[in-house]
């Protein structure tokens, strides 16, 4: 019996549902926004050959300290095989969690509404490459009204960085493919500011690069030239590119400010370790400004995930190679100041922050062939509280010891969201649950 199953079998019984409302700050503006205490963290996890069943899986972890399953594995759903599990996202009605594999372009739709404690696999999409016209590496999954926008990393012709965005209906039917502009062919993240009718997309690298061992890749000078340096500003409704901004060094995650009066976004560049701001100008166009170093760029810490607080004042920035999180005061967005740092682990990748800003979660895995580069390959989910000044540990799970694999993306879940009993709360300018 796998160790995670033994934990559940040891008597971890779910108690009665309690009123709980929770959300992350990085969600689509087209999703209902709910705030408060999350019940579950869903962790999309890469399988490791010879560890447990070796498959990619969705791991459900209890996150509500008022419940007996707090800090424990509640359920595990394996999808069979290793697909390079990476990112995922909730549909606009929050009923489905879409999750993708960067290697073979498989996509899995998990029903988290029928039983939030035990998601089920509702649909598998195995023809993404064919339906999309040769797009490879589904990366970001972003909720649009009735649709899912998938930003990809590569293509089937040469497995390089030329790529596209692909739209599906919520129930998994292909709609259309939107190729990146010729002058900025790379892709990574896609984020919408609904108030401005603008979408930003960022850029990374293609399949041939991201599936190579990191040390081998970094020693290949020619391959290291094949990373993106662009951010594209789009007319969101028309899906037409308007501007191409240059940010050297692979800009990754994009976070729009959440107050509709704040017309800017943040990103970080992985290869140059810089924090950037994307600011709307008086004429409606945008400019990209380099704002600050993240750690010591000479040591190549590799910034990865970022998380902006719901009041737009605090930005968490993870750096993969040194396992650090650095927290910036961005209340003056053009002049950020680092106010805190902490080593989370030997390596760290994703960070998810609760809407109230009181809880922060971290996972360790970036890519199967990049994990453990220069460091022990530890794999974990670690939870903390944040009081505005420092992080304090609350619980952690060793995914290797539990024979689960490499934890990557996190999304929050609630027991009673679909019951009709939850009263939604949200700041002005954000969607609310009907």
Number of strands: 28
By CATH, the topology is Methylamine Dehydrogenase, Chain H
Instruction: Give me the side-by-side strand order of the main sheet.
Output: 3-2-1-28
Tally the structural domains: 1
Oligomer classification = single chain
Overall body shape? globular
Largest sheet: 4 strands, antiparallel
The parts where pLDDT drops under 50 for at least 5 residues are 6-21, 421-434
Q: CATH top level?
A: Mainly Beta
Structural class per helix/strand content? mainly beta
Helix content: under 10%
Number of helices: 4
The CATH superfamily is YVTN repeat-like/Quinoprotein amine dehydrogenase
What does this structure look like?
This protein is mostly beta strands. The protein has a single domain, classed as YVTN repeat-like/Quinoprotein amine dehydrogenase (Methylamine Dehydrogenase, Chain H), CATH 2.130.10.10. Strand 8 and strand 9 form a beta hairpin. Helix content is 5%, strand content 40%. The strands form 7 sheets. Strands 3-2-1-28 form a 4-stranded antiparallel beta sheet. Strands 4-5-6-7 form a 4-stranded antiparallel beta sheet, with no helix packed on it. A 4-stranded antiparallel beta sheet has the order 8-9-10-11.
């Amino acid at each position: 019996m796998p160790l995670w199953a033994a934990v559940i079998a040891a008597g971890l019984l779910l108690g009665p549902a309690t009123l709980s409302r929770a959300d992350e700050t990085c969600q689509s503006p087209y999703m209902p926004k709910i705030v408060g205490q999350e019940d579950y963290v869903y962790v999309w996890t890469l399988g490791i050959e010879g560890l447990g069943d070796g498959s990619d899986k969705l791991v459900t972890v209890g996150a509500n300290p008022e419940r007996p399953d707090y800090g424990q594995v509640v359920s595990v759903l394996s999808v069979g095989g290793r697909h390079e599990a990476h990112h995922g996202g909730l549909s606009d009605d929050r009923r489905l969690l879409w999750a993708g594999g960067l290697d073979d372009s498989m996509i899995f739709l998990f029903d988290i509404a029928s039983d939030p404690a035990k998601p089920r696999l509702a649909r598998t999409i195995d023809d993404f490459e064919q339906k999309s016209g040769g797009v490879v590496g589904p990366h970001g999954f972003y909720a649009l009204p009735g649709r899912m926008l998938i930003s990809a990393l590569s293509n089937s012709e040469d497995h390089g960085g030329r790529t596209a965005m692909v739209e599906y209906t919520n129930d998994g039917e292909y709609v259309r493919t939107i190729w990146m502009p010729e002058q900025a062919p790379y892709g990574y993240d896609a984020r919408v500011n609904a108030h401005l009718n603008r979408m930003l997309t960022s850029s990374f690298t293609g399949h041939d690069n991201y599936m190579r061992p990191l040390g081998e890749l970094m020693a290949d000078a020619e391959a290291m030239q094949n990373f993106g340096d662009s951010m594209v500003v789009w007319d969101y409704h028309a899906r037409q590119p308007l501007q191409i901004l240059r940010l050297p060094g692979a800009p990754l995650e994009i976070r729009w400010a959440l107050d509709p009066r704040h017309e800017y976004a943040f990103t970080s560049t992985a290869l140059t370790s810089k924090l950037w701001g994307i600011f709307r100008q008086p004429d409606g166009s945008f400019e990209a400004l380099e704002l600050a170093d993240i750690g010591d760029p000479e040591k190549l810490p590799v910034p990865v995930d970022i998380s902006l607080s719901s009041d737009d004042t605090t930005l968490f920035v993870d750096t993969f190679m040194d396992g650090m999180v650095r927290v910036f005061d961005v209340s003056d967005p053009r002049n950020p100041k680092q106010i805190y740092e902490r080593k989370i682990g030997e390596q760290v990748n994703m960070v998810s922050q609760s809407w109230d800003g009181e809880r922060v979660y971290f996972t360790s895995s970036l890519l199967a062939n990049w994990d453990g580069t220069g460091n022990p390959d530890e794999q974990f989910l670690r939870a903390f509280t944040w009081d505005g000044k420092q992080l304090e540990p609350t619980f952690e799970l060793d995914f290797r010891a539990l024979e689960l694999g490499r934890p990557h993306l996190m999304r929050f879940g609630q027991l009673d969201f679909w019951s009709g009993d939850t009263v939604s709360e949200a700041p002005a300018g954000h969607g609310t649950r009907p």
